[in-house]
Amino acid sequence: MVRKILVVEDDEPILDLMDLLIRRLGYEPILLSNGPDALRYAHNDPPALILLDIMMTPISGWEFLEKLREEPALKTLPVIIFSASPSVEEKMAKINDPHLGVLHKPVSFTELRAGIERAIGKQE
């Protein structure tokens, strides 16, 4: 069974790129452009990993993460913050979530593969 990676990103060209790269890595990408839809999806069908943009509307990636972690079944779901912001690590240090990683935009195929492998392990 192919593991699903939920990509929460409001920039359509980035979603298209993530779709291609994640498929090349052998995972099934689930592409959503806003936090509320992504929260519903994660609650109903938890993916193996979430790649999460920070700067979105109507809720930010930080708000999404807070709401996600409020649900007991999703507290340990791996999340990789996917952001162009240089201050992400500072905010992440304050959160202190062992199931949280970061990739900076723009991301290379090699960086994406390494980030996914760190978060959920290598594909069988």
Main beta-sheet strand count, sense and barrel state: 5 strands, parallel
Extract low-pLDDT stretches: none
Q: What is the CATH C-level name of the domain at 1-54 and 61-84?
A: Alpha Beta
How many beta-strand elements? 5
Identify the overall geometry: globular
Question: What fraction of residues sit in β-strands?
Answer: 15-25%
- Please give the share of residues in helix: 40-55%
**Mean residue pLDDT:** 93
Rg measurement, Å: 13 Å
Name the CATH homologous superfamily of the domain at 1-54 and 61-84.
Response regulator
**How many helix segments?**
5
CATH topology annotation of the domain at 1-54 and 61-84: Rossmann fold
Helix/strand class: alpha/beta
Which helices and strands appear, and what pairs or packs with what?
Layout: E1 4-8, H1 12-24, E2 28-32, H2 35-44, E3 49-53, H3 61-70, E4 79-83, H4 88-95, E5 100-104, H5 109-120
Parallel strand pairs: 1-2, 1-3, 3-4, 4-5
Helix pairs in contact: 2-3
Task: List the defining traits of the structure above.
alpha/beta; 124 residues; 20% strand; Rossmann fold; 43% helix; 5 helices; 5 strands
